[in-house]
Fold:
Amino acid sequence: MINFEKDIVTVRPKIITDTIQKLPNYVGISEVTAGAKGISMNMVVIPAGAKAEPHYHDGFETAIYLLKGKVETFYGKNLEKSITNIEGDFIFIPEGVPHQPKNLSNSEAAIAIVSRNDPNEQESVQVYNLASNSMDQTP
Structure:
């Protein structure tokens, strides 16, 4: 279907947004910024030696492209599994999988482009409570 009524939207984020994951996030495409209906795309920075809060995305998939750095992501029940990714890797996280990325460098930030099939980017983020090994529905 061709649509001549809509415009292309450009977003140039200049402000860091705080997230439930506790990582600096530059919101790019979302429902709020661009009127997206089924996708969000952001730039996430993991500072040197830092890690995200353990979390999962309720009902939404995540696709990541690691632009810079080396990141180990702990995932699964009790975050017992792990995978290490380097710049240039594409990463897929299925919906509902608890995970916690950690920057393996103590001197340089890791930078990633993150997309979800969720236009409200932070709405589906839920804290994963390791102490009770449960999915906490209140961030």
